[in-house]
Amino acid sequence: MAAVGGHDPLFGLRNNFYLGAYQGAINTSEIPNLSADDAVERDCLVHRSYIALGSYQLVISEIDSSAATPLQAVKLLALYLSSPDNKETVISSLHEWLADPAVGSNPILRLIGGTIFMHEQDYNEALKHTHAGGTMEHALNVQIFLKMHRSDYAEKQLRVMQGIDEDHPLTQLANAWLNLAVGGSKIQEAYLIFQDFSERYAMTSLVLNGKAVCCMHKGEFNEAETLLLEALNRDAKDPETLANLVVCSLHLGKSSSRYLSQLKLSHPNHTLVVRASAAEEGFDRAVQTVA
Question: What is the spatial distance between Cα 146 and Cα 286, in angstroms, rounded to a whole number?
Fold first, then answer.
């Protein structure tokens, strides 16, 4: 990351990626006169945008064995997400690379490692590699602590980020996530952060979902549904939009089966799908017991 206050040629590209404007990030990635390090980071952001759009095979095919370590790490993420069959091999490679003194300290590799271990719900292992920080993207720590239900540690991490750059989009996002976790009067503060994003930057599914979740916390389910349907128009396969529509529809007394079916088809390993399947199996067992 460029020094705070200095010229950062990747500023716009980063913001597009952070706020979920992945196609926008790809479309604006042709930036002239980048340094070698900035060019590698640019390529990482572009390929991570393709991963966010589900284009795993494109990333796997474009990054060859001669690519720099950060790009190899991004390829690992694409391999991990592309098929459950790859998980064991990817995690083995990840452990090997992170233990290698020559590359193990690379911030992108640590970030990807933290992301994969978080997907595995191995939060302690994730924190081993991200806790040292190094870039503002280690807002990942805030996510990890919140998944561990440790909002106290998440708040400490947020304070560190605010000390570096209080207005950075990732700092603001982390603040909104923490406010949502804390709840109560903090929900309105989170909503205002997402509202500010929607006024300053391109509207994305990420921002729309953030506003919608705030509305659901406040019991404003009709408003939430409107926001989520707008998000669905932008990306019909976005897993968080579909999951939030399932929850919102249930609160509105509407059928959620179509959204849940879409989620099962496009993201069979999503937390909501796994929980719903477990509940269905439990119900079926209970019925058989009674019968």
Answer: 33
Give residue-wise pLDDT tens across range 138-151. Answer: 789 999 999 999 99
Write down how long the chain is.
291
Give the whole-angstrom CA distance, residue 48 versus residue 214.
Answer: 27
Cα separation, 151 vs 192, in Å, equals 20
**Are the C-beta atoms of residues 178 and 158 closer than 8 Å to each other?**
yes
Rounded CA-CA distance 238/233 in Å is 10
Burial (0-12, 13-18, 19+ Cβ within 10 Å), 35: exposed
Non-local CB neighbours of 109 within 8 Å, separated by 6+ positions: 69, 70, 72, 73, 97, 98, 103
Contact 183, 156 (CB under 8 A): no
Nearest Cα residue to 208 out of 175, 182, 245, 178: 245
Helix 239-251 / helix 271-290 crossing angle, nearest 10 deg: 50
Global pTM reads: 0.88
DSSP state letter for 252 = T
